[in-house]
Backbone:
């Protein structure tokens, strides 16, 4: 391979790892919302597909390594995926061992990554022969996926009921754009609707603030109180296999393997289910918590990597919650990537291996080292100097820009409409997975009625 | 950092996406980010992918400006003693 390209891969991975180490620590950063827009911009900016992939892999590994740090230190989840770990991390924190929990979590992540990368490549090869048949029925599969994910949620009837109307809203806007000539008939607005769904909950909240009665009735808070205990510095390069004991390594490996096998399921759901099941028989609360957090962290990493890599390598359609959410732009980012021409079609197997290895190895070596050594300092920096408003503002800005790029000023309004509806559905318990699947199935679903 | 405008006298922050924000600051951040991001996209030479790269730079600039202007709604302190 071209040495210049290798250098680009390394540079992209280093940037991804550093950027998402910081974003991972910031509280409340949803994976889809922080990974998808940036990946999308990189794809549309015509970076080499292999470079984007290395960046993405490095970013998810780094983000998954670090989003559990604020859980351990302050009991605040750094992302949706680390929420199930809060309870266990609080037990360790109560026993005065937050730094042990960081080390165990980070080591769990490393094991999850080490297991997920080769296993995903293997699984992808097993599934690949079926790829032609799967792609033929893509729309039906997405529709089935929407129904499946809807049935898995708590509010299954609302989720089920929302699928067809939401598809009509999306397709209706597209037809309006075609009809008025804002968008040529052969172009389909996708990206900005995708982001509209992502940022929906925030837009709905902002829209509500315009209503004085709701604004006054919202619960008000002072400041978020975060207390951190100073800890001693660790010396030397940390070794994940020494930080975890043999039982923890065993459980973490098992849960990571299961995480890869269930790549098409919701990672949060699997984390809660497996994390609790695998540790339910341990009596000692501290041992139980340590086992739970290491295996949960291993599982989330494995689930994210396999959920991205398996559909990407084997099928080329985003057929997992991770692929359709955070990794969505790798599959579909018109005009650069489409369902017929995306990273799946553009990269060879060796490209996939090289990009994945460079991305994950760099993220692990940079982020794991930083995580173990400077977890406290980084947390302190982020909590003190990075306002939540700045983060929300930037994602809002990116969405507006990409909306404008897709179909001008009118589409900014269109995206706000999609976002408000999506935010409302989200609040009623219709999760991102269902909404994204609907977005993909919309053209076919609506054509059934016409 | 003390001279930054501070809202801590009253309890007036609301929760958006798992963390606390002040409404005025949030509106300010959104306005700044939209102007710099969309603005950079619009002034860029019309030669893809330049507008997007300009936009991305605009977003980074907005992030830095907002981080300097707005105070995080978190009070943060260290404790030194061991045990609870």
Residues:
């Amino acid at each position: 391979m071209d040495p210049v390209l290798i250098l680009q891969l390394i540079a992209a991975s280093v940037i991804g790892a550093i950027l998402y180490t910081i974003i991972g620590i910031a509280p409340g950063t949803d994976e889809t919302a922080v990974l998808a827009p940036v990946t999308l911009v990189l794809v549309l900016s015509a970076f080499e597909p292999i470079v984007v992939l290395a960046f993405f892999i490095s970013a998810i590994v780094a983000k998954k390594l670090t989003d559990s740090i604020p859980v351990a230190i302050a009991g605040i989840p750094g992302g949706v995926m680390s929420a199930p770990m809060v309870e266990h991390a609080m037990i360790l924190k109560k026993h005065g061992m937050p730094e042990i929990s960081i080390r165990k979590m980070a080591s769990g992540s490393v094991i999850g990554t080490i297991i997920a990368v080769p296993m995903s490549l293997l699984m992808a090869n097993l599934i690949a022969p079926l790829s032609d048949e799967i792609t033929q029925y893509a729309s039906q599969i997405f529709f089935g996926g929407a129904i499946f994910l809807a049935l898995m949620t708590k509010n299954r009837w609302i989720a089920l009921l929302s699928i067809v109307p939401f598809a009509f809203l999306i397709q209706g806007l597209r037809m309006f754009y075609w009809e008025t000539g804002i968008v040529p008939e052969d172009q389909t607005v996708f990206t900005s609707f995708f982001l509209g769904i992502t940022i929906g909950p925030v837009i709905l909240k902002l829209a509500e603030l315009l209503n004085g009665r709701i604004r006054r009735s919202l619960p008000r808070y002072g400041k978020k109180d975060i207390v951190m205990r100073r800890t001693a510095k660790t010396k030397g390069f940390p070794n994940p296999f020494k930080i975890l004991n043999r039982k923890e390594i065993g459980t973490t490996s098992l849960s990571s393997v299961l995480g890869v096998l269930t790549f098409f399921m919701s990672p949060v759901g699997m984390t809660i289910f497996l994390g609790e099941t695998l540790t339910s028989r341990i009596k000692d609360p501290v041992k139980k918590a340590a086992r739970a957090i290491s295996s949960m962290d291993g599982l989330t990493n494995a689930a994210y990597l396999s959920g991205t890599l398996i559909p990407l390598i084997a099928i080329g359609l985003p057929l997992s919650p991770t692929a359709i959410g955070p990794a969505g732009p790798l599959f579909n980012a018109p005009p650069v990537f489409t369902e017929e021409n995306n990273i799946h079609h553009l990269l060879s197997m060796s490209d996939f291996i090289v990009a994945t290895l460079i991305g994950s190895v760099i993220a692990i070596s940079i982020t794991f080292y930083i995580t173990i050594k400077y977890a406290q300092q980084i947390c302190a920096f982020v909590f003190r100097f990075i306002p939540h408003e700045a983060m929300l503002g930037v994602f809002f800005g990116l969405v507006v820009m990409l909306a404008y790029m897709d179909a001008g000023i009118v589409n900014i309004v269109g995206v706000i409409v999609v976002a408000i509806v999506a935010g409302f559905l989200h609040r009623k318990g219709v999760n991102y997975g269902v909404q994204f699947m609907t977005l993909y199935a919309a053209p076919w679903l609506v054509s059934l009625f016409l | 950092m003390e001279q930054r405008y501070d809202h801590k006298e009253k309890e007036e922050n609301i929760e958006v996406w798992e963390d606390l924000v002040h409404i005025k600051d949030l509106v300010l951040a959104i306005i700044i980010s939209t102007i710099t991001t969309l603005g950079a996209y619009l002034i860029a030479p019309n030669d893809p992918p330049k507008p997007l790269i300009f936009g991305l730079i605009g977003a980074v600039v907005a992030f830095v400006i907002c981080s300097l202007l707005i105070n995080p709604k978190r009070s943060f302190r260290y404790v030194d003693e061991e045990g609870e």
Observations:
- Residues 1-9 of chain B have pLDDT under 50 and may be disordered.
- The first helix of chain B runs from residue 23 to 43.
- The beta strands of chain B are 14-16, 19-21, 74-79.
